[in-house]
Write a structure and sequence with these properties.
211 residues, mainly alpha, 3 strands, 7% strand
């Protein structure tokens, strides 16, 4: 019997967001460097380093992702968003050379999630950012899953401390699969159960049918 008091809600995929997911809620509060392209009347309290009532045009400051997305418009220039350093060309070169050497948790911890959200903003570097995100995930995926399958009943804290949140979820999924298989092999499992991914897919299909 499942005794969990809270069933985690999976985060959105790519540029999508799931506002019932704790991971996506935390991701939406990641701060981005921005530059105001017009004056913001009576919003000076948002800029802690200034005592003025208004935020003048050309001010450089940081805003959370959710507010930056809400204010950003392609047609009417309200603000421009600068790339966080981990997505700039210098770091993209490091990731393309060997993504496994980078401590993504220290750089993130929402490297893939925030990088995908950066594609909402009209940057000429978006194609390169998207390609680096994909190649970084592919380059690190095998090591992540191999580690999860070779650490049965061991302390895995050292293995996961360099992973970003998406990779940690994949690692846990691999661990759960391995533990379940080991229990089944030893005759300790009463029955095989469907994975959470399959159950979530069925729920989505039922919702589509009902609508």
């Amino acid at each position: 019997m499942d005794t969990q008091s809270y069933l985690p809600v999976q985060p959105g995929v790519g540029m999508e967001e799931n506002f019932l997911s704790l991971d996506d809620i935390l991701l939406s509060h990641e701060r981005l460097p921005i530059r105001t392209e017009c004056a913001f009347p009576r919003l000076g309290f948002l800029e802690k380093s200034s005592d003025t009532q208004d935020i003048p045009e050309g001010t450089k400051m940081e805003l959370p992702l959710w507010l930056s997305k809400g204010l950003y418009e392609r047609k009417r220039r309200v603000l421009s968003v600068e790339l966080p350093k981990v997505y700039r060309e210098g770091w993209r070169t490091v990731f393309n050379a060997d993504p496994n050497v980078v401590d993504l948790h220290k750089m993130g911890p929402y490297y893939y999630g925030l990088g995908s959200q950066m594609l909402h903003f009209d940057s000429p570097e978006n194609p390169e950012i998207g390609q680096t995100l994909l190649q970084t995930f592919i380059g690190r995926f095998r090591r992540t899953m191999d580690s999860s399958q070779n650490a049965y009943n061991e302390d895995t804290s050292a293995l996961v401390e360099r992973l970003d949140c998406l990779e940690k979820a994949l690692f846990r999924s691999g661990q759960n699969g391995l533990n379940g298989f080991q229990s089944w092999e030893k005759g300790q499992a009463s029955q095989l159960t469907a994975s959470s991914l399959v159950l979530n897919y069925r729920k989505r299909k039922m919702t589509d049918v009902q609508h």
